[in-house]
Write a structure and sequence with these properties.
Elements lengths: L2 E11 L8 E7 L4 E7 L1 H11 L9 H11 L3 E11 L2 E9 L4 E6 L1 H11 L2 E5 H7 L1 E2 L8 E2 L5 E2 L6 H13 L3 H14 L1
Helix pairs in contact: 1-3, 2-3, 5-6
């Protein structure tokens, strides 16, 4: 099995807010492929809180898991997304103590929520990325052609226009572009 390193690109709420699902978009560390995974509201909240460094009043489940591992002298080495069957992803959390490694079966959303608490790498079996990944040309994603034929990038849009593009991108489930628009808005603030 060949492992491919992934980074978290973004987290967006689903267009159908009734379902309470979110899209976690992972990107290939050295490549153009993206891996979108639909996750639940609680896992999305846990991931977002850790990314934003928000400390809850009481420990969340993933924080509890980290505290438990610390008490028994284990660390999380990495997370590996191992398989996809009928649209469902499978993963393992690789932990170790001073003597040996163990592999724990987990949903990718839980595994990633735990991995970010340890700053552990996230990997995917290349076969899974080949099957479920989306090729993404980052160089072309934010370019638009004006009526006069000139290329316009995100840097050329006003904040008001960017906010509209962000709303439209999320409605179209174009989460990669939405993340780029969000980053451009944050860069300006």
């Amino acid at each position: 099995m060949k492992k491919v390193k992934l980074d978290i690109l973004g987290l967006s709420s689903s267009v159908d807010s009734q379902t309470g699902s979110f899209a976690l978009v992972l990107k290939e560390n050295k490549g153009d492929r993206r891996l979108p995974i639909i996750i639940g509201m609680f896992e999305a909240q846990s991931i977002a809180m850790e990314i934003e460094k928000i400390i809850p009043n009481r420990p969340m489940t993933h924080d509890l898991f980290k505290s438990f591992l610390k008490k028994i002298n284990f660390v999380v080495n990495e997370v590996l997304i191992t398989d996809i069957k009928d649209g469902v992803f499978f993963s393992k959390i690789i932990i170790s103590d001073s003597t040996k490694k163990h592999s724990i079966d987990a949903r990718p959303s839980d595994a990633i929520a735990i991995a970010i608490r340890y700053k552990a790498n996230i990997y995917v079996d290349e076969r899974v990325l080949d099957e479920a990944g989306i090729i993404f040309d980052e160089a072309e994603v934010d370019k638009k052609v004006n009526d006069d034929g000139k290329v316009k990038t995100l840097k050329d849009f006003s904040v008001k226009e960017l906010n509209k593009k962000l709303t439209d991108s999320i409605a179209e489930e174009n989460y990669e572009f939405a993340a780029r628009v969000r980053d451009e808005i944050k860069r300006r603030n």
